[in-house]
Amino acid sequence: MKRLAVVEDEVYMRQELCSMLEKAGYAVIEITAFEDAAEQLTALAPDLVILDLNLPGISGFQICRDLKQKTSIPVLVLTSRDQMTDELQALRLGADEYLTKPCRKERLLARITNILKRYEGRSNLLEGQGFLLDRGTYTLYINNSSVVLPKNQGKLLEALLVGGDILVTAKQLSMALWDTTEFIDENALQVNLTRLKKTMANLDMKQKIVAVRGLGYRLETEEAP
Description:
Elements: E1 3-7, H1 11-23, E2 27-31, H2 37-44, E3 48-51, H3 60-70, E4 75-79, H4 84-92, E5 97-100, H5 105-118, E6 125-128, E7 131-134, E8 139-142, E9 145-148, H6 151-163, H7 170-178, H8 186-202, E10 207-212, E11 216-221
């Protein structure tokens, strides 16, 4: 049974939506604490998130961005905001579908089915800005093509993607590469990071590896000129 998470603050709307989804054969998770919703969703790992944009304390845009930076969980935005600028913003942040309320039950269920079909077999994928990484084979999907990364580069990119906005320390990267933190071969780590940086540059990836001296590394999206 597919598990859907509903992020909606209006009680009546949430209850109605959850009831309809359960009748359609889905297991439903209700998210009612919103400020750490992305962390909750990452931990719960549902098959799909249905997300409102107008939430107390935090914007649905922020939740979508935070979730998509860390996971490949699909997101369907269901909102009363019907402006094109809102839809484009949500899609830029990684939303897979955008529907406005009120929405016919049949349309919503059809979109849910389509998204779930698209994501079948993608549970092993990590999502970055404009690319996907298969953490089983270290295959990088970008610009309608695929590249198999050398194992060490794949391990480093996986660790950085899982880290999201949080700095990943040299110890954590060493653990990812060599399964030990008993020693850190800084030179070997830098060689592997340099190779990954070169690969990412050659692929014109939007995200770059940024070092914060003495603290660690993270992926940052380059600003358009």
